[in-house]
Amino acid sequence: MGGSGAASFLKVVAKNFDVLAGPVVTLVYPLYASIRAIETKSPVDDQQWLTYWVLYSMITLFELTFAKLIEWLPFWSYAKLIFTCWLVIPYFSGAAYVYEHYVRPYLVTRQKSVNIWYVPRKKDVFSKPDDILTAAEKYIEENGPDAFEKMINKSRETTTRSSNYTFYNDNYRYDDDYRY
Question: How many angstroms separate the CA atoms of 62 and 104, rounded?
Answer without folding.
Answer: 21
